[in-house]
Amino acid sequence: MNTIKPELCWLTDPTVFAVNRLDAHSDHICYRTAEEAAAGRTSLRQSLDGLWRFCWSPNPAARPAEFWRPDADLSAFGTIQVPGHIEMQGYGELQYTNTLYPWDGRAELRPPEIDWDNAPVGSYVLDFTLDEGLRGQRVCVSFQGVEQAMYLWCNGVFVGYAEDSFTPSDFDLTDCLQEGTNRLCVEVHKRCSASWIEDQDFFRFSGIFRSVFLYAKPKVHLADLWLQTGLEEDNLTGTLTPRLKLEGRTAGAKVTLRLTDREGYALYEGPVTEDTLELQGVQPWSHQTPTLYHAELTLTDAEGAVQEVVPYDIGFRRFEMKDGVMCLNGERVVFNGVNRHEWNAEKGRAIGPEDMYAAMDVFRRNNINAVRTCHYPDQSLWYDLCDRNGIYMIDEANLESHGSWQKLGAVEPSWNVPGSLPEWKDCVVDRARSMFERDKNHAAVLIWSCGNESYAGEDILAMSRFFHENDPGRLVHYEGVFHNRAFDDISDMESRMYAKPWEIQAYLESKPAKPFILCEYMHDMGNSLGGMESYIRLAEEYPQYQGGFIWDYMDQALWHNDALGRRVLGYGGDFGERTTDYNFSGNGIVYADGAEKPAMQEVRYWYADAADRAAQDARNAAAARAADAALAAAWDARPEQPLTITEGDGNLGVKGDGFEILFSYSEGGPASLRMGDTEWLWRAPRPAVWRASTDNDRGCGFPQRSGAWLAADALSRAGKPEVVLESSDRVTVQYRFDLVGVPGAEALLTYTVTGRGALEVEAVYHGTEGAPELPCFGVQFQTAAPVAATRWTGLSGETYPDRYKGADFGCFEEVPHIEPHLVPQECGLHWQTRQAVLQQRDARGRTTAALELQSCGEPFAFSALPNTAQELEAAQHPGELPVTGRTSVTVLGAMRGVGGIDSWGTDVEDAYRLDGSQDYQVKFRILLR
Length: 929
Known about the structure:
Elements: E1 18-19, H1 34-39, E2 45-47, E3 50-57, E4 78-82, E5 96-97, E6 121-129, E7 138-143, E8 146-147, E9 149-154, E10 157-163, E11 169-172, E12 181-189, E13 202-203, E14 207-208, E15 212-217, E16 220-231, E17 238-248, E18 254-260, E19 266-271, E20 277-279, E21 293-300, E22 306-314, E23 319-322, E24 325-328, E25 331-332, E26 335-339, H2 353-365, E27 370-372, H3 380-389, E28 392-396, E29 406-407, E30 410-411, H4 422-439, E31 445-449, H5 458-470, E32 475-477, E33 494-497, H6 501-508, E34 516-523, H7 532-541, E35 545-551, E36 558-561, E37 567-570, H8 600-606, H9 610-636, E38 644-647, E39 651-656, E40 659-664, E41 670-675, E42 678-679, E43 686-688, H10 695-699, H11 702-706, H12 708-715, E44 722-726, E45 730-738, E46 746-754, E47 758-766, E48 776-782, E49 789-795, E50 809-814, E51 830-833, E52 835-841, E53 847-855, E54 860-865, H13 869-874, E55 888-895, E56 920-927
Parallel strand pairs: 26-27, 26-35, 27-28, 28-31, 31-32, 33-34, 34-35
Antiparallel strand pairs: 1-10, 2-15, 3-4, 3-6, 5-13, 6-12, 7-11, 7-15, 8-14, 9-10, 9-12, 16-17, 17-20, 18-19, 18-21, 21-22, 23-24, 24-25, 29-30, 36-37, 38-39, 39-40, 40-41, 41-42, 43-48, 44-45, 45-46, 46-47, 47-56, 48-55, 49-50, 49-52, 51-54, 52-53, 53-56, 54-55
Helix pairs in contact: 2-3, 4-5
């Protein structure tokens, strides 16, 4: 659409999404000379990033409607940083919501309406002068990302209008420019018809959040290029078909191509024609060998003068469907992937290059070979990094209308958009086109995706047809056909979200025509990612299972000052907004600050190849055998020494060489364990039958089903102990606990002091029919003073029964801490431990006291945390946890898995659940000297 008069009604008209916007084109950079290209600095571009003048308005009626006039009074304007979100710079309201539209419950709307009373507007103004390198040529402006709708003026002249927050919007400014100072005015609207199809699960921002720059077009200009590569069946012969679009004085213009390998050897040097080039001896591009070749195009005018030099790195590969299996260069491909939102805890989605480089480092360290750009196209640098590092991409169009067809989990598409509504078709196909044109040269892009969670209909089918017709060398993905099989042809593959392993197996055994991928799986919300093995094993057994993409890369949380003035990471609802989905945005394999979560070692292990996993398993088994043998030998070598027993009115005292224990008759266990001058116990140990609920526990209703154990853990008491054995070299004392709230269930804690200078602790749980599932079973106690460090022999990092194979076996050390999940929860467990040492240290870091726990034949699990399970359970933010000066130590023989299939209904796998009617036990010893 072309016009010179802007209309506010465009905001609610889905047929108006681009006015005077230039055609989408490839993301190449034009340089004036070969020297500029070699240096990576072009004189044909001018950045407009920086401080702009700015005015925020709560709705269109309140905006400064005439601010674009050259003589407008801007004295009331402040400033804002571009790129950046409006809401992150002190204007408007931050809001996180998942599927519900932001206005739900506040305005009765249906597509394409907006609430005109609550539709914020940002008015941007920038004065600039053209750099020397741009003068005397056509000049355009490129907005790389504006959320959600923008009107543009230059020097008082209306230039254009655009929607689609995540692909570039370019406009020609040439006829508006003047000598000296020029003025750009941009009016950004947070609400428009596009709001209905940009309902992604993320914080809802607005503004100019990606870079803005001017670029010049010389008298002849390379406007678009597609260096369309192929790879023959021999995997040695590459093909290259350059498709170029020239603008300006094209008569007599010529383009030459020089294509070189990494050593600078030229595979081709000559003119660009319409012919396909055949190149011998190429190295195929793949994750294992991400070989790129450097193309340099030189554009000359009719007189032979160089007008532009355009470099681009390309790869030769062949991606295809063969017998229902996706193949790269003839070999089956398995996606060990992750979904990635663009995110920075300081800046939201206005990320910089450093964020992308950091993410790529994480990918490479942890064997991640694929990424889905959920749920919009990313910045172009990310595609360059994926090209260079061999990361397979599902490039996803900016489309999600989740709230229009699924309400509180129920499928109800009566007013779904885009659906099959003709007025929405052009705008969504345009989104597909804009992504395709920009990203088509990237070797990393194997699959185009039509968007996310928008149901299905004729309009998304039209997107799929666009991709198929324009790019037969790639496949097309869309998960939404799972909910509407009438449009199954949209997707070349069966794609689902969070399908259970057994559901996938049933599909694969049905002799399907399409391969299967999980575009989202392993929902890593809080302490999660248990059971990943079940999915990886599918890929080993079924060729048509071709992997999946973990949800997701990084927790979406933002640094802010809380009510007490502390700088903390906030999640949905922490900014005063409603409606919200609270911490449901915290699903990353890295925290919002970029630190890897403990579960990352499991990702690294299962995303390694089978040979590497087998080698790690063998190393761990050998190391565990050696540790077991060493501990057994050390124990056998310990000498026997006599014990001194003192029977008091309230305690049974046992003394040995350098230690003393008081078994209380009233407190349900040893009230004192003193070694030298150090008292280790704050109160008597107790049975551990509760862990702080994880996000996955809460999602499947486990706390509600098994909440009786929370009371039992906190309130159960033991009667007077029974002295089972008393002699000069051995004393055994037993306490019986009736577990409150679970009739018939009991726990026995038996303590044996031996002449070898050890306290053996055995805990036994006796189940009862009808008892709810257990979260865990073992022994818990708190130290009288904080533990400064914990050293253990066992598995590295944090491990659980359904998430431990990625760990290395050895000796490790950590400071007791609570993992910084957005909502505090169970954390810090060390599964299959042989030995643990709790250390107290002085101000200089020297160990002043140590308490050593050892296995008695069978490994145990343990954690040492600054807070109890009850304290964790009660907190909604890490900052709400009390500082007690104690360490909570838990030693377990049984622990429920953490799960990870999803966080809203699916329980952990059966093998990792604890039946309350069964018996469980744990036994370990504490060395007393």
